[in-house]
Amino acid sequence: MPTLVVQIAVPSPLRRSFDYLPPRGGEAAQLVPGCRVRVPFGRGQTVGVVLVVASQSRIAQTRLKRVLEVLDTEPLLPEELLSLLDWASAYYHHPIGEVVAAALPAALRQGRVPRARAVTAAPPATGLLTETPPTLHPPQAEAVQAVAAASGFQAFLLEGVTGSGKTEVYLRLIERVIAAGKQALVLVPEIALTPQLMERFTQRFSVPVALLHSGLSEGERLHAWRAARSGQAPIVIGTRSAVFTPLAHPGLIVVDEEHDLSFKQQDGFRYHARDVAIMRAQRAAVPVLLGSATPSLESLYNVRAGRYRHLLLPERAGRATAPRITVLDMRSTPAEGRVSRPLLVQMAATLKRSEQILVFLNRRGYAPTLICNACHWVATCERCDTRMVLSQRAQRLTCHHCGARRAADVVCPAPACGSTALYALGHGTERVEETLARHFPEAAVARMDRDTTRAKGALHALIEDVHAGRSQILVGTQMLAKGHHFPKVTLVGILDADQGLYGVDFRAPERMAQLIVQVMGRAGRGDASGEVVIQTHHPEHPLLHLLLARGYGAFAEAALAERAEASLPPYSALALLRAEAVDAHAPQAFLEAARAIAEEAGVAGVQLLGPVSAPMERRAGRTRAQLLLQAPRRATLHRLLERCLPHWEGLKLARRVRWSLDVDPMEMA
Fold this sequence. Notes:
Elements: E1 5-9, E2 18-20, E3 36-41, E4 44-54, E5 69-70, H1 79-91, H2 96-101, H3 106-109, H4 138-148, E6 155-160, H5 166-179, E7 183-187, H6 194-204, E8 209-212, H7 218-230, E9 235-238, E10 250-256, H8 273-284, E11 288-292, H9 297-304, E12 308-313, E13 324-329, E14 335-336, E15 339-340, H10 341-352, E16 356-360, E17 369-372, E18 389-391, E19 396-398, E20 405-407, E21 422-425, H11 429-439, E22 445-448, H12 458-468, E23 473-476, E24 489-494, H13 508-520, E25 531-536, H14 542-550, H15 552-566, E26 573-581, H16 586-600, E27 607-619, E28 622-631, H17 634-650, E29 658-663
Parallel strand pairs: 6-11, 6-12, 7-9, 7-10, 8-9, 10-11, 13-25, 16-23, 16-24, 22-23, 24-25
Antiparallel strand pairs: 1-2, 1-4, 3-4, 3-5, 14-15, 17-21, 18-19, 19-20, 26-28, 26-29, 27-28
Helix pairs in contact: 1-8, 4-5, 13-15, 14-15, 16-17
């Protein structure tokens, strides 16, 4: 009888699984894929997950070590999820051990906590709903019917203007899923959205809801993970990493705000949760619903290609109507600081009606620059090629790239200067808050950005103040655009609509358009009509003009045409090879060697661009460079990467740099 060999995913940067012999004794029968085991690794021990039980190994049996302990009597990760993790490892070219580890809570990765026994989900005996749902308008009803009629896997794109009732569509579909004894997984882009969505779901359903995000304690996350895996929680809501949560009875996957950049992991295992969700739905044979008021160009392209079915919600739900838009050319409009006089006049009228105001500026801090009026010295980060942002209230300078902080200068540190004539140049949300508080002393002004919401519970308290009417003016960054529902807000002011129009990243205009539309959508979501004032220095810019005159759909059509002309995604596939090091010359040297290997690989059709310095060449004390690989077809690009990766890893230069591969990069910085 041949000796069994166990292939195990071990958390390691090495891009392969590891072979072990079964443990001595009677535990060998428990070795099934998806179970955790404790194994010797290097000079110590670690916890891995069984992938395959085979009859032979690539390594001589005499060199194989034995599994020390089997930690589970049945698989923690089901076959469907193991298959997904294997695909993700291959597609993103990331070590399988680290990919599998990403699917487990920290306590389980460490082998400390036993798994819970699976149970069958069922509707509660007291009834499924705790409130009477509103009447659906026809487009909502059609969307619900289309997804409910899906047999097995099918991908849907639900495009609905802000306030059109996308969440109600999710709720109706989830109601059907739970009634059938199955589970729904709902992905949201950021932690900020999970409490309000959780509240909406718990108000509607009398079933357990599991919440998964990085802000939870280790124990809270483990409890929610076990409730999802066992089936005790029919509804699972989570951020990016929740896409890997095991479900006992999967029935539906929803990706809310599918366009959001937060679904892309930007370091380590660089997966895109939206794309992984689609592959997971396919493997689980369930429908997947992508929702957005401003769909990504990739998703719209997939609609064109027939891969997704397009569902439209063209009007706001209830009595809410689209807001009226006013565009102000700031080249000829008087302003106080960053706020135009016409906007201030409209704000005063809005406050007089006891309505609320939202003011958007996607730049936090007091000012982006501290400068000396005498010698023109500028406060810059010592570790990054960027200026430090001034926080006036804390009298502190902060680098928003590496996190470096120091006290704000009161005397110019430049040699032979020593002037005290330092001044803040530019405006951030803190300075706008100060301006508005001075102009409207009787109104309560609140600020929503990373600086004010960092403490636990701060964001929830801020949102509660807005809903309760304790804050009349809300100033903030892109956090304001993330699906918040403020029914008393009737006026939205966008202070700088130009950010992104001329960015180095080809995706910058798309993000600019999505952000503007999402922020505009916060106005007039209740009974009162809404108004939007957009301040710009470039009202004649063709993409901005098209967006404001004809809407996001027309903008997206034009943007897709530009992408097609330039052979940019979604009309091509990209991978970005990045390298960084303290040694300023090492990244370029490594990438030059990597390019030479790629050229010798013999895969036609892949264009190699670079290596070049990163847009921010020095960050956190390291010099950065990158090599872009572009191909008209994904299969061609992946064939090249498969051939090159073993050789890139074997380069001596690879030991002198920190390098990474980003497949389908969403940021080029």
